[in-house]
Records
---
Amino acid sequence: MQLSTKHLLGIRDLTPQDIQIILDTATQFKEVLQRPIKKVPSLRDVTIVNLFYENSTRTRISFELAEKRLSADTINFTASGSSVSKGETLLDTVNNILSMKVDMVVMRHSASGAPHFLAKHIPAAIINAGDGINEHPTQALLDAFSIREKLGTLEGKKIAILGDIMHSRVALSNIYLLKKMGAEVMVAGPPTLIPKHMAEAFDIRVEYDIVKALQWCDVANVLRIQLERQNQVLFSSLREYNLAYGVKKSLLDSLDKQIWVMHPGPINRGVELDSDVADSKQSIILQQVENGVAVRMAVLYLLSGRKPE
Amino acid sequence: MKTILSSEQLAMTIKRLSHQILENHPGLDNTCIIGIQPRGVWLSDRIVGEVRNLLPAGKLEYGKLDITFYRDDIRKELHVPNHTDIPFSIENKKVILIDDVLYTGRTIRAALDALLDFGRPEKVELCVLVDRRFSRQLPIQPDYCGKSIDSIVSQKVTVFWKENQGKDEVVLL
């Protein structure tokens, strides 16, 4: 049993079989997380560095916890307060860390392609924990795992990704993954936040009316409005965005079916998602966070692969 | 290929192992049986069926344990994990661990590690169908043994079960 790739740089590089292996392995790790002692010795003697060049709460804690549950040794690196502020290059930083005999690198960077660059230059296995607006593969895997847990399968299910598609790495990874696993995908939101030619490029549906999108789907994956990545005005105000595209309780109640609501976090409450929806029984946001640890354990376990004897 | 246990011998052996377990644990008070995934479960299913026939009133807790994440060769080769299902506490219980073939002892070592993550049992006993004696790499011995055989490293013991391979037989290849 082996993944077809040495690194996890993006969902784009994975085969459907790889995805299946990761999700199935995560199911077993989820069982481990229910035990009185939630720790297995699988990655004993493996050293992992978490390189976070960009802020993150959930992903960093989730990776760190996954590594600890697998008994790996971990080092945490955050760009602020490091020699990066003195002008050290990415490659120099990583090479220095690798000289200390590190086997795997988990990397979050604001520049798209940063982990791909590293993969060409260093021998350690690299896991992309989000690069710019490119991909966030472990988030897509945990989203898929959560959907599979609720609906039994991904094949033939209708998943709508709502909100800021333009700036979202989660959207891109989700689209790749869901398409590979046979789900029907729709992106919905204001036209200014959905890249042109999305429908043709990815063979997915595009919808500008959020009510129609919710009526169509089994699961709504609501994305955060990424104000930090927007350098031009793409909608008039947060209040107007909420009125036109926010997911509200009244909107969900008006549907003739129950759908599951997901969100990769952090939530802008009252913007893309109202509090009464985020905290409702239809929301599986906290289950996503829980599943994140199991999925990341599976990825780390499968990529730890064979080490030279 | 040499037959170690024929279908009839296998049935008799399982019956004997079940009786031996009941002799040591009359009434099965505070006792549970745990089969080791994947292949030990075929044997533990049979033993549990037999024990339930012999003692219909006894309360028997039965679980299945996967040891993939506890193996000591995990860095050489990754294995597909199986399902662990232990829906009860093993704290202060007598646990009877069941596997089909005892060879180097490494599987049982991993199983003991895995088991202790579920609680602290009062006692753990080991029941195996075939013991490849003189092949041990760790100091582990069975408490209940179906058949002891002498074998060399290049030989392989395979247990066939009617449920998945269409026949009941133990062979030496």
---
Amino acid sequence: MTLAPEAGPALQEVDPLASEVRRVPPPPRRRAGRFTPLVLLVPGIAVLAAVIGWPLVQLLIMSFQEYGRAQAFGAPAPFNGLDNYIEVLGDEQFWAVLTRSIAFCIVNVALTIVLGTLVALMMTRLNRFFRLLVSVGLLLAWAMPALTATIVWGWLFDTQFGVVNYTLTQLTGIDFMGHSWLIDPVSFFAVATVIVTWGAVPFVAFSLYAGLTQVPGEVLEAAQLDGATSVQRFRLIVFPYLRSIFVVLTILSIIWDMRVFAQIYALQGIGGVREQTSTIGVYIYKTSLGTGEYGIGGATAVILVVILLAVSFFYVRKTIREEEL
Amino acid sequence: MTALATARPARAGSTGRRTSPERRRRRVGSVVLSAVAVIVFLVSAFPVYWMINTSLLPNNLTRTAVPHFWPDEFTFKNYELVLFGDTRSPFLPALGNSLAVTLITVAVALVFAFLAALAVTRFRFRGRGSFIVAILIIQMIPGEAMLISTYRVLDDWQLLNTLAGLSLVYVATVLPFTVWTLRGFVNGVPLELEEAAMIDGCSRMQAFWRVTFPLLAPGLVATGVFGFIQAWNEFVLALVVMSRPDSQTLPVWLRTFQEATTTTNWAAIMAGSTLMSIPVIVFFLIVQGRMTSGLVAGAVKG
């Protein structure tokens, strides 16, 4: 987190004092100057069309062209139909990268949601002092830019002088001094998982904590009197209340963790084997800007956009329904 | 902290008189919980502490068998080296680039987003729903996938390695989020206030500027800070668009600096990291309360 990469529309203002959220009805149709709203929208739409829309069109076109170094220097780029896609989908390395990205994503999302839930549940049962303490810690982790966080964690896990090796040696009695964490791909991704989860848990924990404070205490108490265990209370009462928060958090986490770039790229710079540790974002960067295979990189990028938009579809639909636009 | 530190209403102990073993169990439980809370705090905060601690130690003390857990030989030498030292990638120009890009981005994005938010909250018109849906979808398109074509389009427009080029990309990047957030803030100001002012003789513009706008100011500030943080931290696009050493922003600078210090001068790298992170952390702590509790809005059954 980075602060959550882009906290996205999931975060909107809510008055902490408001006990219930006001649903905002759509504004009345105003007769004042039929074109005013459109004039207000022009600057925003112009920027989005120029910097997102137009490159997106370019990306699509490029993914159907033979586009390499020569074309980048001005040679004509002939259309080659689905060749790029066929090449990408037939490339073992692409599948390795995609599998790696998805596996990394699943592990990190699961860890983030589980740990975030546990921390949020814990916060509801702490007294003021300890809750403040936990909040401050979480905010520090959340506020840390992804890149500096990665470099700092890289230092913590440093082979020779890292505090992690020292501490593990002291605690376990096993000699970890000089142990390299980044050379072995599995271990590399374990470190990446620590970094990503560490940065992502705060957002989930705070969101769930805010939700938990709205679960009516009487219901939980009644269940307790009826002999429900705490696990049952969570499963049968708390979870159904917070289901839609869980859905939103899961979808957002999937999107962020599929896109993970800065952490992986920087960790590779500190000492990983690039071929074995690239996730899909880093892979696109390397095939296009690294080796100049823009057409291939473009096709890969289109595939990534399609995957992420498919995941986002549910989120967007849900948000629109809720907002009663 | 307000939004986070509000205590949960205490539950009435409705189970009558407690037996003493149960009370003991509860006390043990709360001690365990407090201990876990301390562990969560330590794990969360330690990297930040370690970054600052290392940055204040002379570099030779970062390479000892037993780590120095606090800056017992306190020094600002690392900061001097980063700020004014003859390093291969100088810090100050990168700081200047970062400041320029983030400030331009925030200013432009806030104005554009504010206008758009007004349009979608205060008016109904054909295409309003589509615009909001488009904003939500654009939010989900990953910059990592767009970097090739963004690079090429900026190249066509002669904007590679320019502050204007990167700012333009960042405005588009933070705009969807900014529009969405401001829309929530504008919705939070009841129209009746404006109408009351108009009954008292204000024109619509006057009513807006004198009544609604002051109420929106805190929301504008918080949204601006969030946009600032996003632009300040952004790495991928900056890496691609600003490839020349003299046009680097801080995140790109930090990475080249980290790779360029051959004997891995961790103390200096941590000083650079601290310089880059502290403004973000401070700003974030100031505005988070205003921004972080919104996910619950409308998401709880009830």
---
Amino acid sequence: MTQLFTEVGQAAKAPSGLVPFRFREVGGDYLLSNFLGDWVFVTKDEMRSLARGELQTGTPLHDKLASKNFLRDSIDAAKAAERIAHKKRFLNYGPNLHIAVVTLRCNETCVYCHASRANMDAVHTDMTPEIGEKVVDLMLQSTSPAVTLEFQGGEPLVNFPVMKHMIEYALARNRAYGKELEFTMVSNLAMMDEEKLAYLIDRKVQICTSIDGPEHIHTKQRKLVGGNSHREAVKWIERINKAYIDIGLDPTLYHVEALLTTTREALKLPREIVDTYVSLGCRAIFLRPVDPFGFAGRTAQIVEYDRSAYNEFYRTAVEHILDLNRKGEQVLERYASIFLTKILGDEEPNFLDIRSPSGSGIGALAYNYDGKIFTSDEGRMMYETGDPAFQIGDVFSSNYRALMKHETIRALVMASIRDTQPDCVNCAYAPYCGVQPEHSYRTQGTIFGRMRESTTCAVHKGIQDFLFGKLRENDPKTTEILRRWTTVRARTHFIQASSAS
Amino acid sequence: MSMSFDLGEGSVRVEFDEGLYPRDAIYGAAYVFIDRCYVHLDRVADKRIQVSLKAKKPGVDSQALAGEFQNELLGQAWRQKIVEDNRQFVETITARALGGAAGPPGLDELLSMDIGEETAFDDPLGIAMSWEEKYKKKGKTSDAKSEGEAAANTETSGGEAS
């Protein structure tokens, strides 16, 4: 762009009639985006005309910009305000995600463990039933009409009795609140058995697991003492998916969700990883890069990599997913789905790390086994590795309103408003993007972050460059597939019957 | 001269014009280095500030340290400028985010309030506010000169509204 303005030279002047916009070169054209999140591609010649202030009424460029709300006179102010309020409506509610770490004990050892696991004999890291009840009490005080209690660890099945106790307690207590209540469990599945499964199915607990890709890479990265971590996970994924079918649920909508942690080893296998997920019946693949939290901070030399390598991996994997879609396979990539939902419409998927401000504290809370409360699970992980910066209270002495008005949450909200951060303020992707301030703090020592050097920014930019590149090509079939990835099909079965009295 | 450097072994002294960089940005940038450097700020002349960074561990490249400090300083100064330009926007979003998450105060909060002579007439829920003041009905709002008067009007006003 600098070169373009140099070419225009003294002829460059402030374009009149245009609303403030941001721009980025994508695939030889310029992507323009405005404060409403509307976007348009213009050619270099058209951009030159804009820079010279030569926008004429009645030209295709003028019509194109007018139709996308880039011209001040053609904007319906009331409608614009309505759209902004709709996009930011998540600010009207408090935390909907409540992560309970019911134990740090885990039966597997993973090279990238974010959770800071403890050995199986570390029973002192089990959450007690009393703490579990206090977690539920705080969760139900959230101003959010829908709340999800997510059980994590360690391995949550290690402390199954307390998990069950919290579920029963939450169901009983919610009769007074009538919230849309959901339960989720993130498990490696190696300690699953038929009795536990029957309970989880009966109580409509969503089950999520981790798959690192084909068996050889999964077992290499996730050690299960006395067993094969991949075979255990696959066996139970198939068993659980069958259980959903047995109770009459649509398998395309109801199945075990699996998450990938992309390690350096995984970068070599983009297509194989996609194929593994598809063969397990997964309809969504989340190509998450490795996080710098927990043990991953210490094993970075083994698992970390340059983000340009990740972006290359991402492009290859998603091209493969697109090919599978063209052949009739219904599968999507989760990052793409989150960004596309904002790019192609006015909906906000409320993914807490990719929204502005982020969901730290105001969108999610994490409760450690010992009752300490954190702004996010990442904040809890940092506490486990020696930094209590994101602890905002504990279940014994904190009240809900004081937690939400905590100075740490205030700081995190201000730090994650993208429109007021250097680099982001000029970024064409600002309307669709977001950042987790805990990540910036962990990697750069500041909750504000320096996006130019941020691995999160590199990943988000890389993904959006890819997506906008596809949209610029304007191939009807590809565009239709991308549009389909933004379709939301609610899994109402997992919502507990609301019976407020 | 707006900025000058003095590079030592694992240390750097940067001196610059305070008029060019806001003092808060200097503090902010210096603070980022305290985990790996001993940091000292000094005024060496009128409008001239000197920042000394001395690495806590050996083997640090002074040139890189100076460069990092300059970049951090620019980032801090720019962020401060952006935030000042958008102060109302930031405050609006922050207030909406925190207010939405916390919800209105409840009975527990009222019971735990410290009620003394100075706070006795605080009205965080607006329950002592007149109907007119609350809903901005013309002609009445300006009559309520204090919260006490507003409270006295409540019953009558409510009657009028119905």
---
Amino acid sequence: MDHLDQLEAQSIYIFREAFARLKKIALLWSLGKDSNVMIWLARKAFFGRVPFPALHVDTGKKFPEMYRFRDHYGKEWELDLRVEPCPPIDAVDPTLPPAARSAARKTEGLKMALGKYGFDGLIAGIRRDEEATRAKERVFSPRGLEGNWDVRDQPPEFWDHFNASPPQGAHLRIHPILHWTESDIWAYTKRENIPIIPLYLSQNGKRYRSLGDQDITNPVASTASNIDEILAELEQTKVPERAGRALDHETEDAFERLRVAGYL
Amino acid sequence: MNMLVTPTSPATPNGTTRPQVRIVIVGHVDHGKSTLVGRLLHETGSLPDGKLEMLKAVSARRGMPFEWSFLLDALQTERDQGITIDTTQIRFRTNSRDIVLIDAPGHAEFLRNMITGASQADGAVLIIDALEGVRDQTRRHGYLLHLLGVKQVAVVVNKMDRVDFSAERFKDISDEISAHLNGLGVTPTAVIPISARDGDGVAERTDRISWYNGPTVVEALDQLEPARPLEALALRLPVQAIYKFDDRRIVAGRIESGSLVAGDEIVIMPAGKIARIKTVESWPVTPVAGRQGAGRSVGITLDRELFIERGDIVAHVGTAPRETRRLRARIFWLHDKPLAKGDQLLVRCGPKESRATVVAIEKAVDPGELSSSENKAISRNHVGEIDISLSNPIATDPYTENPRTGRLVIEVSGRIAGGGLVLSVDAGQRAVPVDIVPVESALRPDERSARYRHNGAVVWLTGLPASGKSTLAKALERRLFTNGGSPILLDGDTLRAGLNSDLGFSAADRSENIRRLAEVATHLARNGHIAIVAAVSPAREDRATARRIADTAFREIHVATPAEVCEERDPKGHYKKARSGALASFTGIGNDYERPEAAELAIDTSTRSVAEAADEIEQMLKTSGVLFDELVDLAANI
């Protein structure tokens, strides 16, 4: 088994645990490279079909390429796609800096969707290497009744044994690709021939490394126009993956505040 | 998952795979762990080009002397920035080994981190400061290595430069730590004098330690034996789920050890059902050809429809795991409330979960104090050895035979509260696997209890021969029947005439006799009858087995008639024969009857009439929920 085989087998294991141990789960599809790999892994875990809904919490501000991708592959992959809207910006904590506030709409949209469907588990494609607070995550991460995350009181988790009993009314976040890196994602995308949104490839000397809402995501300088070139670039670069995400740079704790409140 | 310091390819030039050894470096804080790691990375040529020069230049610019531990710090900073990844593992190479170094950091959450890290190690390096000598933490870490079953321990005595490379000082420390480790059953593979800062003893035996002629640290690491690769162990595929998304019925799970291929004959444990693997399913291409090995998440289909559940284990016939309801485990405890005898828990062995009861706490140790005075409970962050009885049979292995299936976690209120290693299983081992499909009764238990006005139960009468068990059992049977119930007498002697006629009176045969009685009685109880067992059942352990089998249905009654009264009665003439030596292995003469300690009821028939005794039993059955007190309640239940 090579490195990618190991990552894949581990993710499949996590998917199957989540499906076996929780009653009502959904997968969060943000249309980006990570969640596309995640859906691919789910199809591997369940032999070609995703036996639970794929939830797109839609801010309405994604790139047109992303919407096209969603509509096309949602059908082709036979997903039970649920597109859920987010509340307007004035419904969101006004003390947050602008980009974080804009992003926080997603947290609210997520809470609304949770209330609507009563999911007890949400599968999310976050990775430890993306960002410092995500590095502290558990694979099965309990969330409070308000969707909040208590960083200081996380249950022990070892030997692939996960805590899967959320308190009544609360839910778990399940992170099947927590142990992957940005390079792993690209190497696997290439190996498995998983479709990608072209915004990740260089045009006019720029490309997106991480895709979010149009108003708070910027491209980074890059000449990588295919996956091999992206992988080569990642070997060299000192620029963090989320460099193009405005909200990460507003205040030092903006992202942590968001995540504690329930953001992904 | 690993931080690759060198881009390693697992293959050697001749195409063979280099053995991989996982080690953990432990020892008292400031005794030089990160300095040694930095040195090792350098000496084994594992650092990226220019890294060392860069750090030296940075140190010089800041006017600081260069420290080897900066290397680790630098790598850690890189990890924080997300350039190189994760977390807890660093790789380097010796002449013949790929070493994976498991970083076990953290003082506050010391135990949790240390155990999680070290539980995956094949070997350990225990570091001791030559000046400070063996400290508490040194002993603690030594103990934890023992706890986790890490047997290969290389000891390094660091900072020898601080003691002028004194051979005497080295010998003192070496003797002290060797005695400590030997006491724990661990023999150090080497004790090495070093100066990690200057490099003495790390990769080279320098002049300053010319008196030492053992291995260097790199040589010692080179001699560590890798764990047997998981693929070389027997097949263990714990079942995560059965999927039926289309016309295939796929048994899904991860191969924890061994390998499988279509066509293999397999056995599903603990039930012992046999089948053949028809296909190995996958996506997007299916079926997949070729052998699938440990680590793979797979799906298999079988050549026949069997009832399989999550938590069952697929194994090969002949090398199947043991089936048990009882096991002994070495655990670490993380919950606020101490773990005590009698506690009800949830145990998880892979995907299998079972309710469990702590039968005994054999040992409880504070790894900080290393005192094992307490053995009533295991406190938070303490360790111990416990006996667990499980309400469902599980299939498992001792961790020495299979590190993947031989471990468990314990849950309290839905949260992992501890974990540990399976030391031994009390196996009700099946001689030959058989193809069994249990058939359930057409009736539900509540249908029967509505008619009989009682729940099913096993009423177990134990006591010396002639203590009055059978008399009492028959009186009780008559009484329950008169009241409309469904009692059934299972007399030990009667069953010995038929079902158990193959058994003699050796300890093993007696245990088996009791086990069968308990199985039959439990079957009756599950079907709503009250099985009244009258059997001497002298061994406490055998009665405990019976209680485990019958679980909550079990009621033990000690017919506690004094021995001399029993012998005087002697209705079958057994005591007389035994006294004359004509009856070997007779319980009653001698001391082989072990009195119950916590029977539900004790009755002395020398001071009670049969009717009074039956009254007492009836009352106990009422208060313990076997007999329904009120007809009205019953009506409400229908």
